[in-house]
Amino acid sequence: MKLDVEDLRFVLALDRLGSLAALAREENVTPPAVTKRLNQLEARLGIRLAQRTTRRLQLTHEGHLLAQQATGVLEQMQAIEEALQQRSQTVAGKLKIHGPFGFGRRYLGPLLAQFHGTHPNLEVQLYLSDNLMLPRQPVHGRDAFDVLVSIGTIPDSRWIAHRLAPNRRILCAAPAYLAKATPLDTPADLARHACLVLRENEEDVTLWRFAESRASARSGARAAREHTVRVRPAMESNDGDVVRQWCLSGKGIMVRSEWDVADDLAARRLVALLPAYRLPDADVMALVPQSRQASMRTRLFVEMLRQALGPRPPWRSARQP
Asked: pLDDT tens digits for 284-297?
């Protein structure tokens, strides 16, 4: 045969990354090694699969056809593997998980260790990053993630979203900052305050959206209104723990997830602000590629996460709704 499974995965990776250099970095090999592999594959098939430029690689019509067919072949092979494992009731193979740094360290790491203890035949991989770019994530083949855990729903038709636990976003600051700051009564007042911003996922992180809480809306004559504020960050980082430490030291006001600041709020190291307004929730979600939905190891792990984190998550006290 002129093609094997690794050839199909190679072509799919080229299509996804669009660069020989990027594929070399991902595979941890030299660019000449990737170029040589592409040349050898094209020579075996007798066709040109890609057009190279100095900056970009683009698949030819034949390359696109091969990539399209490769997707179906790999998904069928995976379905066969899953069916055989379910017949034998064996939970084995590779379980590849992606999650945010802070949440991953505190919850995913320990839960994966527990899951591996129950299913020791699994090969578990956990990748942590605060930059979740779904369009770049493969959804099939060796490099695909089985589960992406995200804080907040990220719509993408290639992924099935499973809600794991409720999670609010909270505006808060340290008592040391509030002692010297001007009053904060409405979201518009944030323009006069030092704001601490977390940059992640290329989102518009300086646009903070609030809605009047239900209690506030009932007490007023008007229905609940939305309030949108463009803040000017006094300090910003792409690391959530850095922003939290700045906030604890009294450098300004931040928006952080309930799971991350619940202990600080309970210990009064931080104070929740603007109780009459509420930020959009950012529930903890498990995103599963459609091609992984039938996987026994994936289904069991998602169910374990759901039981461990809900219905009342570990960061929420019994008195909270």
From this structure: 999 998 777 768 88
Predicted TM-score (pTM) of the model is 0.70
pLDDT for 135 = 47
Distance CA 189, CA 244 (A): 21
Closest CA to 124 of 92, 171, 85: 92
Tell me, what's the pLDDT at 220?
47
Instruction: Express each pLDDT in 199-236 by its tens digit.
Output: 876 678 899 999 987 644 444 445 568 899 999 999 99
Q: Does some domain include residue 79? A: no
Domain extent, residue 296, equals 90-167+283-309
Q: Same structural domain for residues 49 and 123? A: no
Residues 151, 54 share a domain:
no
What pLDDT shows up at residue 143? Answer: 59
Determine the Cα–Cα distance for residues 290 and 89; give it in Å rounded to an integer. 22
Query: Residue 172 pLDDT > 90, yes or no?
Result: yes
Residue 82 lies in a domain: no
